[in-house]
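Pilot study result, target chain (280 residues):
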Amino acid sequence: KSLNIYIETRRTNKQMLKLFIATTLLALTLAASFPDCKGTENTHPLITDEPKFLNSTKNGAKYYIESKDDNSSFVYIGIFEGTPYEMGYAYGELFKEEITYVMEAMGIVAQFATDSFPQWMQDLNMDDSDLVDFALRLEQIATGRYTPQHFFDEMKGMADATGLSYDQIYKINLFPEASRGQCTVAGFWGPATPDGNMIQLRSLDWNPSAPMNMYPVISIQRANLPGANQYANFGYAGVIGALSGYSGKVAISEASWLPELDNETSIFGIPWMFALRDIL
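Predicted structure:
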């Protein structure tokens, strides 16, 4: 069933393109002015419409925005507050259908991305399903002791609310760690921007027909943890780590990986998407 969902999504990917941040549009417009640039200008309009309220629960609320000029440009907004468990539970309550779709479909998609795993893993002569499971369980072992407890609590709340297994949610959230994903990251300032202020860009360099593009979510969180900031995390349903985000104090974008053979890299440590969210 999940494979059929993925195939159907690939067939209709032109209708599945979603909201991209204003800085992405500006950066691509700037790039189009250079004759050697092979990129294509993103002509999707910016979404300036008011969010539509959909639902609420004890520790959260759900909204939706769709461009009145382009119905393929839309995004969900979730606002969550409370303890990490309460926020995860509210997220799961309000986005149960979306999270279930993303978790099931991404489990299938991961099997098409094993070529991004380290070469020694690919040489194990496992079928793709077993290799994905092995890689994600290895990541659980390598990163678990370094991962702050609040991430585990949040995933537990999400699992309890959706009925999905905690292990499934945990492993899918570690897929970007196992695949060593990286995107285009850039900063523009001075004469490169209209007012000289800095504009930050993170472009998701991945298949636009990937199932998680069905449910983009801006997650605004107000955790009752000591020293925690309120922040907006730009991502996808059920993916609790950060690709891009913004708080009143800092903005972040996805990190780039050092060369594979660099001796300073290691699989041990906090997952990079969790680290970026903690920076927020």
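One observation from the pilot: The longest helix spans residues 128-143. A full batch analysis is planned for the follow-on phase.
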